[in-house]
Design goal:
With 141 residues, this protein is mainly α. The chain has a single domain, classed as Globins (Globin-like, Orthogonal Bundle), CATH 1.10.490.10. It binds protoporphyrin IX containing FE. The site of protoporphyrin IX containing FE has 20 residues, from helix 3, helix 4, helix 5 and helix 6.
Length: 141
């Protein structure tokens, strides 16, 4: 990602943070509408799940300028997702719901450049998670 793209993602996300509860509800509503078969994979309280998702996205977004430091945590997240039964193809559905949610939340501020930057960020995140889910866990050095 270019430094400009990092800034676009970070500035737009900070506008979503104050409405993160609404954003999470919109996101899961859209996700389960798009693919109802994903609903039974979520076993816990959805408000709590939404909070966890928003915290994780906030952590990643704020750390985009130094992505290397986040890689181990993102890999762990990807391995846990393998355990939840998440398959590669689900990442595209989740990415689509995330972009749609940002469009709803940000309106005209979600410019084509901002959207492209988000797609780039999500793709890096999803690719790191998918790759880690396929690897055996690395032994600690
Ligand atoms: C960039 C992508 C994603 C992020 C940042 C993310 C984030 C999270 C976080 C923070 C949790 C809480 C538990 C944990 O930390 O292990 C979680 C749980 C979960 N996520 Fe994701 N996730 C992503 C992609 C996906 C995808 C593609 C699916 C596919 C449907 C998915 C389905 C689930 C499920 C089923 C759980 C467990 C729910 C439960 O235990 O009830 N996630 N996710």
């Amino acid at each position: 990602m270019t430094p400009e793209q990092v800034t676009l993602v970070q500035n737009s996300w900070e506008k979503v943070v104050p409405i993160s509860e609404t954003a999470a509800a919109l996101f899961y509503g859209r996700l389960f509408e798009t693919d109802p078969s994903l609903r039974p994979m979520f076993r816990g309280d959805m408000a709590e799940q939404g909070r966890k998702l928003m915290i994780m996205i906030t952590t990643v977004v704020r750390g985009l300028h130094n992505l290397g430091a986040l890689v181990p945590a993102v890999q762990e997240l990807g391995r846990r997702h393998g355990g939840y039964g998440v398959k590669d193809e689900h990442y595209a559905t989740v990415g689509g719901s995330l972009i749609w949610t940002l469009e709803q939340g940000l309106g005209p501020e979600f410019t084509p450049e901002t959207k492209a930057a988000w797609i780039q960020a999500y793709t890096i995140l999803a690719d790191t998670m998918k790759a880690a889910a396929k690897e055996p866990k690395q032994a600690a050095a």
